[in-house]
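Weekly modeling sync, notes
Attendees: S.R. (lead), two postdocs, one rotation student

Agenda item 3: backlog of single-chain predictions. S.R. asked that every request posted to the team notebook include the full sequence so nobody has to chase files. The rotation student volunteered to paste the first one in as an example of the format we agreed on. Action items at the bottom.

Example entry:
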Amino acid sequence: MNDHATFCLSNDDNSEQIVKCRCDGSAFQVRADGHGFHDDLVRLEHRDGRLVLLVWADVNDDQPTHLIDLEPARQQYRNDEIAEAKERLRNEKLSPVAEGALFLRVYKSTNWRTGKQFTMREAAEELGVEYARFRNHLMLVMPCDGSPITDEQRTRLLDAPIRVPSNSSLRRDLQRRQSQHDVE
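Predicted structure, as returned to the notebook:
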């Protein structure tokens, strides 16, 4: 099989770009007049049962500048929780609590790569958000298990020293209160 096609892409400013496509059975290749040193500008290949997209975005490099595994684009891996969360994060101004609610739904869903529930890091990466933001906003809505702490844990918490930076207004306020208490 060796199919060829030539297309003319036009723009609003009436400029045109000639694009040539070829499929030789092992790859689908795209070439554009005036672009690329390599024969291909873009090539779609089937490697080890996976679709892989190769892009030559630098005319001075004979090796592909981008190699994109298209396995995550398989329809069977679609996760409506992730799709909705990505769309809402992209298009809406959400409060930290609203983000946390979205993050919780993604966190509780199944990671297609592992077949298990997402970890916080995996879910943050999947959504393209910083891990700290994901974790902090998730904690705003994470259900509490209601487990009581032991007397020993409570004592350790109450006896733990409070670490406050020396230049903070809280430290100055604590020192002022302590000096007032000492005077009384």
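Discussion: group reviewed the output briefly. Residues 169-183 form the longest helix (15 residues).
Action items: rotation student to repeat for the remaining queue; S.R. to check formatting next week.
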